[in-house]
Amino acid sequence: MGSEGVILPRHLVLVPCPYQGHINPMLQLGTILHSRGFSISIIHTQFNAPCPRNHPDFNFIAVPDGLPDHLISSGNIPAILLAVNANCHTPLKDRVAQMMQSEKPNGKVSCIIYDEYMYRAESVAYSLRIPSIMLRTNTVSTFLARDFVLRLIDQGQIPLQGSIMEKPVPEHYPLRYKDLPTTIFKSLNNFVEVVKNVRLVGSSSAVIWNTVDCLENPLLGQVKQQCRVPIFTVGPMHKSAPQLSTSLLKEDYSCIPWLDKQAENSVIYVSLGSVACISEHELAEMAWGLAKCNLPFLWVVRPGLVRGTRNVQQSLPNGFKEGVGERGRIVEWAPQEEVLAHKAVAGFWSHCGWNSAVESIAEGVPLICRPNFADQKVTARYVTHVWRVGMQLEEELERDAVAAAVRRLMVEEEGIEMRERAVELKGRVEIGTRRGGSSFKDLDRLVDMMRSF
Ligand code: UDX
Protein backbone atom coordinates (compact mmCIF):
# COMPACT_ATOMS: atom_id res chain seq x y z
CA MET A 1 0.00 0.00 0.00
CA GLY A 2 1.36 3.48 -0.88
CA SER A 3 1.35 6.45 1.48
CA GLU A 4 -1.99 7.74 0.12
CA GLY A 5 -3.61 4.31 0.37
CA VAL A 6 -2.98 3.55 -3.33
CA ILE A 7 -2.04 -0.08 -4.07
CA LEU A 8 1.37 0.04 -5.74
CA PRO A 9 2.47 -2.56 -8.25
CA ARG A 10 4.81 -5.16 -6.84
CA HIS A 11 8.18 -5.19 -8.50
CA LEU A 12 9.41 -8.42 -10.10
CA VAL A 13 12.88 -9.09 -11.47
CA LEU A 14 12.92 -11.54 -14.36
CA VAL A 15 16.16 -13.26 -15.37
CA PRO A 16 15.96 -14.86 -18.82
CA CYS A 17 18.48 -17.33 -20.24
CA PRO A 18 20.14 -15.69 -23.27
CA TYR A 19 18.69 -17.83 -26.06
CA GLN A 20 15.69 -17.09 -28.24
CA GLY A 21 13.78 -20.18 -27.11
CA HIS A 22 14.11 -18.99 -23.51
CA ILE A 23 13.81 -15.23 -23.96
CA ASN A 24 10.41 -15.64 -25.63
CA PRO A 25 8.61 -17.43 -22.78
CA MET A 26 10.21 -15.19 -20.13
CA LEU A 27 9.10 -11.99 -21.88
CA GLN A 28 5.66 -13.50 -22.46
CA LEU A 29 5.46 -14.22 -18.73
CA GLY A 30 6.55 -10.64 -17.99
CA THR A 31 3.82 -9.32 -20.28
CA ILE A 32 1.18 -11.47 -18.61
CA LEU A 33 2.28 -10.45 -15.12
CA HIS A 34 2.48 -6.79 -16.10
CA SER A 35 -1.13 -7.00 -17.26
CA ARG A 36 -1.93 -8.36 -13.77
CA GLY A 37 -0.50 -5.27 -12.13
CA PHE A 38 3.16 -6.12 -11.49
CA SER A 39 6.02 -3.87 -12.48
CA ILE A 40 8.75 -5.71 -14.38
CA SER A 41 12.53 -5.41 -14.56
CA ILE A 42 14.42 -7.70 -16.91
CA ILE A 43 18.01 -8.33 -15.90
CA HIS A 44 19.80 -9.86 -18.87
CA THR A 45 23.21 -10.64 -20.30
CA GLN A 46 24.93 -8.48 -22.93
CA PHE A 47 25.13 -11.60 -25.10
CA ASN A 48 21.85 -12.06 -26.99
CA ALA A 49 20.35 -9.06 -25.22
CA PRO A 50 16.59 -8.76 -25.77
CA CYS A 51 15.31 -5.69 -27.59
CA PRO A 52 13.64 -3.22 -25.17
CA ARG A 53 11.77 -1.39 -27.95
CA ASN A 54 8.73 -3.66 -27.96
CA HIS A 55 8.37 -3.60 -24.18
CA PRO A 56 8.34 0.06 -23.15
CA ASP A 57 6.71 -0.83 -19.83
CA PHE A 58 9.63 -3.02 -18.74
CA ASN A 59 12.87 -1.81 -17.22
CA PHE A 60 15.75 -3.59 -19.06
CA ILE A 61 19.08 -3.84 -17.30
CA ALA A 62 22.14 -5.47 -18.89
CA VAL A 63 24.74 -7.03 -16.62
CA PRO A 64 28.28 -7.84 -17.81
CA ASP A 65 28.49 -11.52 -18.75
CA GLY A 66 32.26 -11.66 -19.35
CA LEU A 67 31.83 -14.11 -22.23
CA PRO A 68 34.91 -14.17 -24.45
CA ASP A 69 34.25 -14.07 -28.23
CA HIS A 70 35.82 -17.47 -28.78
CA LEU A 71 33.38 -19.06 -26.32
CA ILE A 72 30.37 -17.39 -27.93
CA SER A 73 31.47 -18.41 -31.41
CA SER A 74 32.16 -21.99 -30.26
CA GLY A 75 28.39 -22.43 -29.87
CA ASN A 76 29.12 -24.80 -26.97
CA ILE A 77 25.90 -24.16 -25.07
CA PRO A 78 26.69 -26.01 -21.79
CA ALA A 79 30.05 -24.19 -21.52
CA ILE A 80 28.37 -20.84 -22.27
CA LEU A 81 25.66 -21.47 -19.66
CA LEU A 82 28.22 -22.37 -17.00
CA ALA A 83 30.19 -19.20 -17.77
CA VAL A 84 27.05 -17.02 -17.78
CA ASN A 85 25.99 -18.34 -14.37
CA ALA A 86 29.45 -17.93 -12.89
CA ASN A 87 30.11 -14.49 -14.38
CA CYS A 88 26.69 -12.93 -13.82
CA HIS A 89 26.24 -13.98 -10.23
CA THR A 90 27.97 -10.98 -8.63
CA PRO A 91 26.70 -8.28 -11.02
CA LEU A 92 23.17 -9.67 -10.68
CA LYS A 93 23.44 -9.66 -6.90
CA ASP A 94 24.84 -6.10 -6.87
CA ARG A 95 22.08 -4.86 -9.16
CA VAL A 96 19.27 -6.43 -7.12
CA ALA A 97 20.87 -5.31 -3.84
CA GLN A 98 20.84 -1.73 -5.20
CA MET A 99 17.16 -2.09 -6.00
CA MET A 100 16.51 -3.22 -2.43
CA GLN A 101 17.99 0.08 -1.20
CA SER A 102 15.58 2.02 -3.38
CA GLU A 103 13.51 4.70 -1.72
CA LYS A 104 11.01 4.62 -4.58
CA PRO A 105 7.65 3.23 -3.49
CA ASN A 106 7.80 0.23 -5.84
CA GLY A 107 11.57 0.02 -6.16
CA LYS A 108 12.20 -2.91 -3.84
CA VAL A 109 12.03 -6.33 -5.43
CA SER A 110 9.28 -8.65 -4.20
CA CYS A 111 10.30 -11.73 -6.21
CA ILE A 112 12.95 -12.93 -8.69
CA ILE A 113 11.70 -15.18 -11.47
CA TYR A 114 14.55 -16.94 -13.25
CA ASP A 115 14.90 -19.34 -16.13
CA GLU A 116 15.92 -22.79 -14.88
CA TYR A 117 19.19 -22.40 -16.84
CA MET A 118 19.98 -19.19 -14.90
CA TYR A 119 20.09 -21.21 -11.67
CA ARG A 120 22.55 -18.93 -9.85
CA ALA A 121 19.77 -16.34 -9.63
CA GLU A 122 18.20 -18.56 -6.98
CA SER A 123 21.24 -18.15 -4.70
CA VAL A 124 21.19 -14.39 -5.31
CA ALA A 125 17.57 -14.27 -4.17
CA TYR A 126 18.32 -16.48 -1.17
CA SER A 127 21.26 -14.36 -0.02
CA LEU A 128 19.20 -11.17 -0.32
CA ARG A 129 16.19 -12.81 1.38
CA ILE A 130 13.94 -12.28 -1.61
CA PRO A 131 11.47 -14.99 -2.68
CA SER A 132 12.28 -16.64 -5.99
CA ILE A 133 10.39 -18.71 -8.54
CA MET A 134 11.85 -20.90 -11.28
CA LEU A 135 10.53 -20.87 -14.85
CA ARG A 136 10.84 -24.12 -16.77
CA THR A 137 10.54 -23.38 -20.47
CA ASN A 138 10.43 -26.98 -21.55
CA THR A 139 8.19 -30.02 -21.18
CA VAL A 140 7.68 -32.27 -18.18
CA SER A 141 8.62 -35.22 -20.39
CA THR A 142 12.00 -33.62 -21.10
CA PHE A 143 12.52 -32.96 -17.40
CA LEU A 144 11.92 -36.63 -16.59
CA ALA A 145 14.04 -37.83 -19.51
CA ARG A 146 16.92 -35.60 -18.34
CA ASP A 147 16.65 -37.18 -14.91
CA PHE A 148 16.89 -40.60 -16.48
CA VAL A 149 20.00 -39.51 -18.42
CA LEU A 150 21.62 -38.44 -15.14
CA ARG A 151 20.96 -41.92 -13.77
CA LEU A 152 22.57 -43.48 -16.85
CA ILE A 153 25.57 -41.20 -16.45
CA ASP A 154 25.96 -42.29 -12.83
CA GLN A 155 25.89 -45.89 -14.06
CA GLY A 156 28.59 -45.10 -16.62
CA GLN A 157 26.31 -45.88 -19.57
CA ILE A 158 26.67 -42.56 -21.41
CA PRO A 159 27.70 -42.12 -24.23
CA LEU A 160 25.19 -44.68 -25.46
CA GLN A 161 26.37 -46.85 -28.28
CA GLY A 162 25.34 -49.68 -30.56
CA SER A 163 22.06 -51.57 -30.74
CA ILE A 164 20.64 -50.16 -27.48
CA MET A 165 19.99 -46.90 -29.32
CA GLU A 166 16.98 -48.35 -31.15
CA LYS A 167 15.50 -49.96 -28.03
CA PRO A 168 12.59 -48.44 -26.09
CA VAL A 169 13.42 -46.94 -22.71
CA PRO A 170 11.47 -48.85 -20.07
CA GLU A 171 9.03 -46.57 -18.19
CA HIS A 172 9.64 -43.71 -20.61
CA TYR A 173 7.26 -44.55 -23.43
CA PRO A 174 7.48 -43.50 -26.28
CA LEU A 175 11.20 -42.73 -26.00
CA ARG A 176 13.92 -44.90 -27.42
CA TYR A 177 17.43 -44.62 -26.04
CA LYS A 178 18.37 -42.55 -29.08
CA ASP A 179 15.70 -39.99 -28.19
CA LEU A 180 17.15 -39.21 -24.78
CA PRO A 181 18.34 -35.63 -24.26
CA THR A 182 22.06 -36.30 -24.07
CA THR A 183 24.75 -33.85 -25.07
CA ILE A 184 26.11 -33.28 -28.55
CA PHE A 185 28.84 -31.11 -27.10
CA LYS A 186 32.30 -32.43 -26.31
CA SER A 187 32.43 -32.21 -22.55
CA LEU A 188 30.09 -34.53 -20.70
CA ASN A 189 31.16 -32.88 -17.43
CA ASN A 190 29.83 -29.47 -18.50
CA PHE A 191 26.54 -31.02 -19.56
CA VAL A 192 26.17 -32.93 -16.28
CA GLU A 193 26.93 -29.85 -14.21
CA VAL A 194 24.32 -27.79 -16.05
CA VAL A 195 21.66 -30.50 -15.94
CA LYS A 196 22.21 -31.16 -12.23
CA ASN A 197 21.84 -27.47 -11.43
CA VAL A 198 18.76 -27.10 -13.58
CA ARG A 199 17.02 -29.92 -11.67
CA LEU A 200 17.28 -28.20 -8.31
CA VAL A 201 14.52 -25.96 -7.07
CA GLY A 202 16.66 -24.95 -4.06
CA SER A 203 15.07 -22.26 -1.93
CA SER A 204 12.57 -21.24 -4.61
CA SER A 205 8.95 -20.94 -3.60
CA ALA A 206 7.39 -22.38 -6.75
CA VAL A 207 7.95 -23.58 -10.31
CA ILE A 208 6.23 -22.08 -13.34
CA TRP A 209 6.01 -24.40 -16.31
CA ASN A 210 5.29 -23.30 -19.87
CA THR A 211 3.18 -26.34 -20.60
CA VAL A 212 -0.46 -27.23 -20.33
CA ASP A 213 -2.12 -30.02 -18.33
CA CYS A 214 -3.99 -31.59 -21.23
CA LEU A 215 -0.70 -32.29 -23.03
CA GLU A 216 1.31 -33.58 -20.13
CA ASN A 217 -0.91 -35.43 -17.73
CA PRO A 218 -0.26 -37.92 -16.11
CA LEU A 219 3.50 -37.10 -16.07
CA LEU A 220 2.67 -33.74 -14.59
CA GLY A 221 0.77 -35.36 -11.73
CA GLN A 222 3.80 -37.52 -11.00
CA VAL A 223 6.17 -34.55 -10.92
CA LYS A 224 3.77 -32.45 -8.82
CA GLN A 225 3.68 -35.22 -6.23
CA GLN A 226 7.46 -35.35 -6.01
CA CYS A 227 8.06 -31.59 -5.93
CA ARG A 228 8.03 -29.93 -2.51
CA VAL A 229 6.85 -26.58 -3.88
CA PRO A 230 3.76 -25.78 -5.97
CA ILE A 231 4.02 -26.16 -9.73
CA PHE A 232 1.99 -23.76 -11.86
CA THR A 233 1.43 -24.89 -15.44
CA VAL A 234 0.44 -21.71 -17.22
CA GLY A 235 1.23 -22.52 -20.84
CA PRO A 236 1.26 -22.06 -23.65
CA MET A 237 2.06 -18.53 -22.52
CA HIS A 238 2.16 -17.02 -26.00
CA LYS A 239 -1.62 -17.56 -26.09
CA SER A 240 -2.15 -15.55 -22.90
CA ALA A 241 0.22 -12.70 -23.81
CA PRO A 242 -0.51 -10.15 -26.55
CA GLN A 243 1.67 -10.73 -29.62
CA LEU A 244 4.70 -8.49 -29.03
CA SER A 245 7.94 -9.21 -30.81
CA THR A 246 10.55 -10.87 -28.62
CA SER A 247 12.86 -11.75 -31.50
CA LEU A 248 16.61 -11.24 -31.50
CA LEU A 249 16.55 -11.18 -35.31
CA LYS A 250 14.33 -8.86 -37.33
CA GLU A 251 11.20 -10.61 -38.55
CA ASP A 252 10.59 -10.38 -42.28
CA TYR A 253 6.90 -9.49 -42.55
CA SER A 254 6.95 -9.62 -46.35
CA CYS A 255 6.00 -13.29 -46.02
CA ILE A 256 2.51 -12.35 -44.75
CA PRO A 257 1.28 -10.74 -48.01
CA TRP A 258 2.85 -13.71 -49.82
CA LEU A 259 0.86 -16.09 -47.55
CA ASP A 260 -2.28 -14.03 -48.23
CA LYS A 261 -1.94 -14.93 -51.90
CA GLN A 262 -1.74 -18.71 -51.27
CA ALA A 263 -4.69 -21.06 -51.16
CA GLU A 264 -6.09 -22.08 -47.78
CA ASN A 265 -4.23 -25.04 -46.20
CA SER A 266 -1.67 -25.22 -48.97
CA VAL A 267 1.67 -24.00 -47.52
CA ILE A 268 4.34 -25.92 -45.64
CA TYR A 269 6.28 -23.69 -43.24
CA VAL A 270 9.87 -24.78 -42.62
CA SER A 271 12.03 -23.57 -39.74
CA LEU A 272 14.68 -25.16 -37.58
CA GLY A 273 14.55 -22.54 -34.82
CA SER A 274 17.32 -20.31 -33.57
CA VAL A 275 20.13 -22.72 -32.67
CA ALA A 276 19.98 -25.90 -34.77
CA CYS A 277 22.56 -26.19 -37.55
CA ILE A 278 22.82 -28.33 -40.66
CA SER A 279 25.53 -28.99 -43.24
CA GLU A 280 25.66 -27.34 -46.64
CA HIS A 281 24.81 -30.70 -48.21
CA GLU A 282 21.69 -31.04 -46.01
CA LEU A 283 20.64 -27.51 -46.95
CA ALA A 284 20.89 -28.42 -50.63
CA GLU A 285 18.87 -31.63 -50.15
CA MET A 286 16.20 -29.72 -48.23
CA ALA A 287 16.11 -27.14 -51.02
CA TRP A 288 15.74 -29.67 -53.83
CA GLY A 289 13.22 -31.68 -51.78
CA LEU A 290 11.08 -28.57 -51.32
CA ALA A 291 11.44 -27.85 -55.03
CA LYS A 292 10.34 -31.41 -55.87
CA CYS A 293 7.32 -31.56 -53.53
CA ASN A 294 5.57 -29.14 -55.84
CA LEU A 295 3.75 -27.34 -53.04
CA PRO A 296 4.09 -23.75 -51.82
CA PHE A 297 6.59 -23.36 -49.00
CA LEU A 298 7.83 -20.66 -46.64
CA TRP A 299 11.36 -21.45 -45.47
CA VAL A 300 13.34 -19.72 -42.71
CA VAL A 301 17.01 -19.78 -43.71
CA ARG A 302 18.55 -17.83 -40.86
CA PRO A 303 22.15 -16.61 -40.68
CA GLY A 304 24.12 -19.39 -38.98
CA LEU A 305 21.79 -22.22 -40.08
CA VAL A 306 24.61 -23.79 -42.07
CA ARG A 307 27.62 -24.74 -40.00
CA GLY A 308 30.62 -22.52 -40.65
CA THR A 309 28.94 -19.82 -42.73
CA ARG A 310 27.01 -16.66 -41.91
CA ASN A 311 25.91 -15.87 -45.44
CA VAL A 312 23.67 -18.86 -45.71
CA GLN A 313 21.54 -17.49 -48.57
CA GLN A 314 24.62 -17.84 -50.74
CA SER A 315 24.84 -21.50 -49.76
CA LEU A 316 21.53 -22.25 -51.47
CA PRO A 317 22.14 -24.35 -54.57
CA ASN A 318 22.47 -22.59 -57.90
CA GLY A 319 19.25 -22.41 -59.83
CA PHE A 320 17.06 -23.34 -56.85
CA LYS A 321 15.46 -19.94 -56.26
CA GLU A 322 14.88 -19.35 -59.97
CA GLY A 323 13.46 -22.87 -60.31
CA VAL A 324 10.82 -22.52 -57.61
CA GLY A 325 10.01 -18.87 -58.39
CA GLU A 326 6.98 -17.47 -56.52
CA ARG A 327 6.00 -20.94 -55.22
CA GLY A 328 8.68 -20.68 -52.54
CA ARG A 329 9.41 -17.85 -50.14
CA ILE A 330 12.69 -17.70 -48.23
CA VAL A 331 13.19 -15.37 -45.27
CA GLU A 332 15.95 -15.00 -42.70
CA TRP A 333 13.51 -14.83 -39.79
CA ALA A 334 9.71 -15.03 -39.81
CA PRO A 335 6.99 -13.70 -37.50
CA GLN A 336 6.40 -17.34 -36.58
CA GLU A 337 3.29 -17.04 -34.42
CA GLU A 338 1.52 -15.10 -37.17
CA VAL A 339 2.71 -17.52 -39.81
CA LEU A 340 1.40 -20.55 -37.93
CA ALA A 341 -1.94 -18.83 -37.34
CA HIS A 342 -2.31 -17.99 -41.05
CA LYS A 343 -5.04 -19.90 -42.85
CA ALA A 344 -2.73 -20.74 -45.77
CA VAL A 345 -0.36 -22.75 -43.53
CA ALA A 346 -1.19 -26.45 -43.28
CA GLY A 347 2.03 -28.01 -42.04
CA PHE A 348 5.21 -27.16 -40.16
CA TRP A 349 8.56 -28.81 -40.73
CA SER A 350 10.23 -28.13 -37.40
CA HIS A 351 13.25 -29.05 -35.32
CA CYS A 352 10.77 -29.45 -32.46
CA GLY A 353 12.14 -26.89 -30.03
CA TRP A 354 9.42 -26.69 -27.40
CA ASN A 355 8.27 -23.18 -28.34
CA SER A 356 7.88 -24.11 -31.99
CA ALA A 357 6.10 -27.36 -31.19
CA VAL A 358 3.63 -25.80 -28.78
CA GLU A 359 3.04 -22.81 -31.08
CA SER A 360 2.16 -25.26 -33.85
CA ILE A 361 -0.08 -27.35 -31.59
CA ALA A 362 -1.85 -24.21 -30.39
CA GLU A 363 -2.76 -23.39 -34.02
CA GLY A 364 -3.77 -26.92 -35.00
CA VAL A 365 -0.89 -27.25 -37.48
CA PRO A 366 0.57 -30.78 -37.82
CA LEU A 367 4.33 -31.25 -37.95
CA ILE A 368 7.17 -32.93 -39.76
CA CYS A 369 9.67 -33.43 -36.95
CA ARG A 370 13.36 -33.18 -37.67
CA PRO A 371 14.91 -32.87 -34.20
CA ASN A 372 18.49 -31.77 -33.95
CA PHE A 373 19.56 -32.20 -30.32
CA ALA A 374 18.59 -32.26 -26.63
CA ASP A 375 14.90 -31.87 -25.76
CA GLN A 376 13.93 -31.68 -29.44
CA LYS A 377 14.17 -35.46 -29.78
CA VAL A 378 11.88 -36.01 -26.79
CA THR A 379 9.32 -33.53 -28.06
CA ALA A 380 9.40 -35.09 -31.53
CA ARG A 381 8.44 -38.48 -30.04
CA TYR A 382 5.55 -36.93 -28.10
CA VAL A 383 4.34 -35.12 -31.22
CA THR A 384 4.39 -38.32 -33.26
CA HIS A 385 3.45 -41.01 -30.72
CA VAL A 386 1.47 -39.39 -27.90
CA TRP A 387 -0.34 -36.42 -29.41
CA ARG A 388 -0.15 -38.03 -32.89
CA VAL A 389 -0.09 -34.72 -34.73
CA GLY A 390 3.05 -35.24 -36.75
CA MET A 391 5.56 -37.60 -38.24
CA GLN A 392 9.30 -37.81 -37.87
CA LEU A 393 11.71 -37.63 -40.76
CA GLU A 394 14.41 -39.95 -39.45
CA GLU A 395 16.26 -40.98 -42.57
CA GLU A 396 19.20 -39.09 -43.97
CA LEU A 397 18.16 -35.77 -45.49
CA GLU A 398 17.80 -36.64 -49.14
CA ARG A 399 15.68 -34.76 -51.69
CA ASP A 400 13.30 -37.60 -52.60
CA ALA A 401 12.68 -38.44 -48.93
CA VAL A 402 12.08 -34.74 -48.20
CA ALA A 403 9.60 -34.34 -51.06
CA ALA A 404 7.80 -37.57 -50.07
CA ALA A 405 7.54 -36.53 -46.39
CA VAL A 406 6.13 -33.12 -47.27
CA ARG A 407 3.54 -34.61 -49.60
CA ARG A 408 2.62 -37.25 -47.00
CA LEU A 409 1.87 -34.54 -44.46
CA MET A 410 0.26 -32.06 -46.79
CA VAL A 411 -1.85 -34.04 -49.24
CA GLU A 412 -2.03 -37.71 -48.32
CA GLU A 413 -4.70 -39.37 -46.20
CA GLU A 414 -2.33 -39.90 -43.27
CA GLY A 415 -1.49 -36.18 -43.13
CA ILE A 416 -5.12 -35.15 -43.42
CA GLU A 417 -5.92 -37.35 -40.40
CA MET A 418 -3.05 -35.75 -38.48
CA ARG A 419 -4.45 -32.32 -39.29
CA GLU A 420 -7.86 -33.38 -37.96
CA ARG A 421 -6.27 -34.55 -34.71
CA ALA A 422 -4.20 -31.35 -34.54
CA VAL A 423 -7.34 -29.22 -34.84
CA GLU A 424 -8.95 -31.25 -32.06
CA LEU A 425 -5.85 -30.85 -29.86
CA LYS A 426 -5.80 -27.11 -30.52
CA GLY A 427 -9.32 -26.98 -29.09
CA ARG A 428 -8.23 -28.72 -25.90
CA VAL A 429 -5.23 -26.42 -25.47
CA GLU A 430 -7.49 -23.40 -26.03
CA ILE A 431 -9.80 -24.58 -23.25
CA GLY A 432 -6.76 -24.71 -20.93
CA THR A 433 -5.95 -21.05 -21.46
CA ARG A 434 -9.54 -19.79 -21.33
CA ARG A 435 -11.21 -18.51 -18.15
CA GLY A 436 -11.78 -21.55 -15.95
CA GLY A 437 -9.19 -23.63 -17.84
CA SER A 438 -6.23 -25.31 -16.10
CA SER A 439 -3.59 -22.76 -17.19
CA PHE A 440 -5.88 -19.83 -16.46
CA LYS A 441 -6.57 -21.10 -12.94
CA ASP A 442 -2.88 -21.78 -12.31
CA LEU A 443 -2.05 -18.27 -13.42
CA ASP A 444 -4.55 -16.90 -10.90
CA ARG A 445 -2.99 -19.03 -8.17
CA LEU A 446 0.49 -17.90 -9.14
CA VAL A 447 -0.53 -14.25 -9.04
CA ASP A 448 -2.14 -14.75 -5.62
CA MET A 449 1.05 -16.32 -4.32
CA MET A 450 3.21 -13.49 -5.62
CA ARG A 451 0.90 -10.87 -4.15
CA SER A 452 1.36 -12.56 -0.79
CA PHE A 453 5.17 -12.12 -0.82
C1 UDX B 1 16.14 -23.64 -27.92
C2 UDX B 1 16.27 -25.15 -28.10
O1 UDX B 1 16.81 -25.45 -29.36
C3 UDX B 1 14.95 -25.80 -27.89
O2 UDX B 1 15.10 -27.17 -28.11
C4 UDX B 1 14.49 -25.53 -26.50
O3 UDX B 1 13.23 -26.14 -26.31
C5 UDX B 1 14.39 -24.03 -26.29
O4 UDX B 1 15.62 -23.43 -26.61
P1 UDX B 1 15.13 -22.89 -30.36
O5 UDX B 1 15.97 -23.85 -31.07
O6 UDX B 1 15.26 -21.51 -30.80
O7 UDX B 1 15.25 -22.96 -28.78
O8 UDX B 1 13.63 -23.41 -30.61
P2 UDX B 1 12.23 -23.00 -30.08
O9 UDX B 1 12.02 -23.48 -28.69
O10 UDX B 1 11.28 -23.50 -31.09
O11 UDX B 1 12.18 -21.42 -30.05
C6 UDX B 1 12.29 -20.64 -31.20
C7 UDX B 1 11.42 -19.42 -31.05
O12 UDX B 1 11.78 -18.52 -32.08
C8 UDX B 1 9.94 -19.70 -31.18
O13 UDX B 1 9.23 -19.01 -30.19
C9 UDX B 1 9.58 -19.18 -32.55
O14 UDX B 1 8.29 -18.63 -32.65
C10 UDX B 1 10.62 -18.12 -32.78
N1 UDX B 1 10.95 -18.01 -34.21
C11 UDX B 1 11.56 -19.01 -34.87
C12 UDX B 1 10.57 -16.86 -34.86
O15 UDX B 1 9.98 -15.94 -34.27
N2 UDX B 1 10.87 -16.74 -36.18
C13 UDX B 1 11.52 -17.71 -36.88
O16 UDX B 1 11.76 -17.52 -38.07
C14 UDX B 1 11.87 -18.89 -36.19
Automatic annotation (TrEMBL):
Keywords: Glycosyltransferase, Transferase. CDD domains: GT1_Gtf-like. GO terms for molecular function: quercetin 3-O-glucosyltransferase activity; quercetin 7-O-glucosyltransferase activity. InterPro entries: UDP_glucos_trans. It comes from the Eukaryota. PANTHER family: FLAVONOL 3-O-GLUCOSYLTRANSFERASE UGT76E12-RELATED, GLUCOSYL/GLUCURONOSYL TRANSFERASES. Belongs to the UDP-glycosyltransferase family. This is Uncharacterized protein. The lineage of its organism: Eukaryota, Viridiplantae, Streptophyta, Embryophyta, Tracheophyta.
